[in-house]
Write a structure and sequence with these properties.
The complex is a heterodimer. By secondary structure, chain A is mainly α. Chain A has 11 helices and 5 strands; from the N terminus they run αααββααβααββαααα. Chain A starts with a helix and ends with a helix. Classes of the chains: A mainly alpha, B mainly alpha.
Chain lengths: 230, 255
């Protein structure tokens, strides 16, 4: 490693130490007067040094920039030194609301409520207070839109939003889908006052479960309402 | 008149107006079957019988009857709610299924996020910002304090060049040598004239410029002058081309 890189590594380390928020590589290049690729190399070198020397700090690439964080192995001691864990865990309602905002942003509160099936009022307020989401303009109907913040990326260990796994990855298994469809259809027929009212679109499923007397496993919808009473 | 006193006798209902309202709100009377025009007519009859107009009660009635009219007109129009009910069970089930699947997806994504947050719990960051005095001002910070639109409006006003101040009411004596040359040459056409005649009723600046023009005429060889003694009258003469005139002394010209 050249002397220049070693010098730059030192400077970059100092800048990261000074910054409470992740600093983007171009900003580091500006501050150091070095070329962007030199800064990137210095950051990589700094990261390796911390790693090989098993330092208590780690160079992380988060929220579009670079920052220093403690090594997770130091957490037990940090917990004894400090009064509380870094981030209080999210309640299920908060986590769902955050997931919807993260994947669909910008998204309005009514839209969140529509997807969850229950109001997102207090969960959204808490997420706002904790700085994980923020307002981002208004929808055409005047509802406040939400998006996630850089703090969200930082606390969840993400550099960019597209590092989240694709939402399709969370598709329910096909068995669950057909089971749900079947139950809904039967319920629909019961309401419409007779079987066969909706037979056309669902021949396959209806044929298998046509008797309508199978014991119902706990419904997906029931479970959600049990977990989060409105 | 208090509205409780308004007794109605309609096809679907007989009794006080207040009770009708209550029954409609409880959906025990179908608003679609209530003839609201009859309610209004009954009220107007009632007013006529009373002879005086209690503005407060009249306003209250107007508000209530307007609300009922709006409610009824909405019920009469085919709305989205009605359409939803008319979805066939298959469509309704598909719609509901899509929602359930969506809810399922985001619940799974939520679980992923909670795991992620837990995995990251051991990474702590410096979170104390540098003291404000040390911080570099960012555009966003400035925007929070200064509305760009307001600033734009202010600077725009400053950048407009104001109309020039109108000085037409101030008289500035403007006289040029060229003008005075024309004037002198016209006088000279007669052969000779006195300088006093040339600057009759002129201001000091004009006199000075005229003198300057006279010197110019002399330089061009067009005129000469005679003054018998200091402060005496100056007679200006055209120079005859053939005559050579001696240069008059400048000290002889004291206007």
């Amino acid at each position: 490693m050249s002397v220049v890189t070693a010098e730059l590594e030192r400077t970059v380390e100092a800048l990261l130490f000074l910054s409470p928020d992740p600093v983007a590589a171009p900003a580091l290049a500006d501050a150091t007067g070095a070329e962007l690729h030199e800064v990137v190399r210095a950051l990589e070198s700094l990261r390796e040094h911390y790693e090989f020397e098993r330092r208590g700090l780690v160079v992380r690439q988060l929220a579009g920039g670079f920052t220093l964080s403690t090594h997770p192995e130091t957490e037990a001691a940090a917990r004894r030194l400090l009064s509380r864990p870094r981030t209080p865990p999210l309640t299920p309602a908060q986590a769902e609301t955050l997931a919807i905002v993260a994947y669909l942003q910008p998204v309005s509160r009514p839209e969140i409520a529509r997807i969850r099936g229950v109001s997102a009022e207090s969960a959204a307020t808490t997420l706002l207070e904790r700085g994980l989401i923020e307002e981002s303009g208004r929808s055409q109907f005047g509802a406040v839109l939400y998006r996630t913040t850089d703090l969200f990326l930082k606390l969840f260990g993400l550099d960019r939003l597209d590092e989240l796994p694709a939402i399709e990855g969370f598709d329910p298994p096909p068995e669950l889908e057909s089971e749900l469809r079947d139950r809904l259809l039967r319920a629909g027929e019961a309401r419409a006052g007779g079987p066969g009212a909706a037979a056309a679109s669902t021949d396959g499923v209806s044929a298998v479960n046509g008797n309508g007397t199978a014991p119902h496993p706990p419904a997906e919808a029931d479970r959600s309402s049990a977990e989060h009473p409105a | 008149m208090a509205l409780v006193d308004l007794e109605l006798d309609l096809d679907v209902f007989a009794g006080p107006f207040d009770l009708l309202l209550t029954l409609i709100l409880r959906e025990e009377v179908d608003l679609l079957e209530v003839d609201l025009a009859d309610v209004v007519i009954t009220y107007i009859d009632h007013l006529e019988r009373r002879g005086d107009l209690d503005l407060e009660a009249a306003t209250e009635f107007l508000v209530l009857i307007a609300a009922l009219l709006e409610l009824k007109s909405r019920l009469l129009l085919p709305g989205e709610e009605i359409e939803e009910i008319e979805l066939d069970p298959g469509e309704a089930a598909e719609e509901l299924l899509a929602r359930l699947l969506d809810a399922h997806r985001y619940r799974a994504a939520a679980a992923h996020l909670r795991d992620r947050l837990e995995r990251e719990a051991g990474s702590r960051f410096r979170s104390a910002p540098p003291p404000p005095a040390l911080r570099k001002a960012r555009l966003d910070d400035a925007r929070a304090v200064y509305d760009p639109q307001l600033l734009q409006g202010s600077i725009t006003e400053l950048l407009v060049v104001p109309p020039p101040v109108d000085l037409r009411h101030v008289t500035i004596a403007k006289v040029t040598v060229a003008e005075r040359l024309v004037h002198l040459r016209r006088l000279l056409a007669r052969g000779r004239f006195s300088f006093d005649e040339a600057v009759a009723s002129a201001d000091r600046v004009t006199v000075a410029v005229t003198l300057y023009a006279l010197l110019e005429l002399h330089k061009q060889g067009e005129a000469t002058w005679i003054q018998d003694q200091p402060f005496a009258e100056i007679t200006v003469e055209r120079i005859t081309r053939t005559t050579t005139t001696s240069m008059p002394g400048a000290n002889r010209l004291s206007a």
